[in-house]
Design brief:
Elements lengths: L1 H6 L5 E7 L6 E7 L10 H18 L4 H17 L14
Antiparallel strand pairs: 1-2
InterPro entries: DUF8105
């Protein structure tokens, strides 16, 4: 339901229905969005989340196992080249 509310626009009506299949009870409620106020979050966190979503979408679309293995190898190589706060390379393979 949170996704429906967050995707809604001003003056939009969202109808929520609940049903009990055992006894036949049903209830409908509607919510009308009168105004939308947004608060800004951490810009880097938002951008990072969007990039991770894009990476996951791309990765799940790859059928070839060899291609996925190559992508993982490249990611690990890039992370090894990335210095940590201490200045030494990251140990990302656990060994």
């Amino acid at each position: 339901m949170a996704d429906a509310l967050l995707a809604g626009d001003e003056d939009e009506q969202i109808i929520v229905a609940r049903n009990c299949w055992a006894c036949g009870w049903a209830e409908e409620r509607s919510v009308v969005i009168e105004s939308i106020e947004k608060t800004e979050g951490d810009t880097n966190a938002v951008e990072r989340a969007a990039l991770l979503d894009d990476i996951m979408s791309q990765a799940t679309a790859i059928d070839g196992l060899a291609t996925l293995e190559e992508a993982l190898t490249e990611i690990r190589r890039q992370r090894r080249l990335e210095p940590t706060a201490s200045g030494s390379p990251k140990d990302i393979d656990g060994g």
